[in-house]
Design brief:
180 residues; six-stranded mixed beta sheet; 7 helices
């Protein structure tokens, strides 16, 4: 399957979003931070794919003695764990500052955070800003649209096996059924 070029680069301040979304906060409090991270990643895999956004979730490793590393989950979603002593804010600001030099396509960058100081900084670099709660609303809307599209496609085809076959095969089966 040929992939479409990403229409935007979305940088998500991961812990900011976890702290802003009620469901993710509950998961964090009940099952730990790792489970909340996994839930966020799963939700954003679908969102990135639906919108063809190259999405990077950035998590602080500020208090961990680990080097920076990045994990690709899909062609459109990756997760970056910052290096020791580097915050997600610092990583996001540096990416925004270098964006015009580094990326030719996509030519849009969207930063997701509810941190107002961060918002003003990234907008100053020419990035678009989206609050964590607005992202949640956008994710829910994309999920509804995707479910509707899937349901519509299924109802058009019907539930019969014949409807899932290509037209040439359908015609051959009709001929066999009528003894032609």
């Amino acid at each position: 399957m040929k992939s479409l070029p990403a229409s935007a680069l979305v940088l998500v301040d991961g812990y900011n979003v976890i702290g802003a979304w009620h469901e993710l906060k509950e998961t964090r409090d009940r099952h730990g931070l790792e489970m909340a991270r996994d839930e966020l990643i799963e939700v954003l895999v679908n969102y990135a794919s639906h919108n063809t956004y190259k999405t990077k979730i950035v998590f602080d490793a500020q208090y961990q003695k680990t080097p920076s590393h990045e994990e690709d989950y899909t062609q459109l979603l990756s997760v970056c764990y910052t290096a020791f002593s580097e915050t997600a804010d610092t990583y996001i600001e540096r990416t925004c500052a270098n964006f015009r030099r580094t990326y030719t396509i996509p030519n849009r960058i969207i930063v997701v955070t509810s941190d107002q100081a961060q918002r003003h900084t990234v907008v100053g670099y020419g990035a678009e800003w989206m609050s964590s709660l607005k992202l949640q609303t956008a994710v829910l809307a994309a999920n509804r649209k995707s479910r509707y599209h899937h349901k519509t496609r299924q109802s058009k085809r019907g539930r019969h096996l014949l409807n899932s076959l290509d037209p040439k095969t359908q015609q051959m089966l009709r001929q066999l059924r009528h003894g032609l």
